[in-house]
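sanity check both lines:
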Amino acid sequence: MFVEDINFTAWSRGLFCKQSLDMGLGQFFTILQYVASQTDTYFAKVNPDYTSQLCPECGTHTGQKELSQRVHSCSECGYTVDRDVAASIIVKQRGLTAVGAPVVKQPSHGVLSGTSV
């Protein structure tokens, strides 16, 4: 599992201000990391720079998008997909590159549900 390594303190001073602190995203990622460790799930943070501005298909920098623009469309290769899906593919690619090999999910021990999976 890969997530963006977001600096929530700096983020709270910017566009999202106090709302980002109220959401508790930093705490969510801490809990997520803990749960991943308890279920033998690989967890890592990746560089968040330009994840919504790069084409996951060809790597072209497509430029900054307005929040209202919900579709990623690459002028170079023609790849079109939902903006959030494109960013998540970039996060996954960066994580796999950092690991250097495919990551295989380990069997869960049912820590959360109390049952074996």
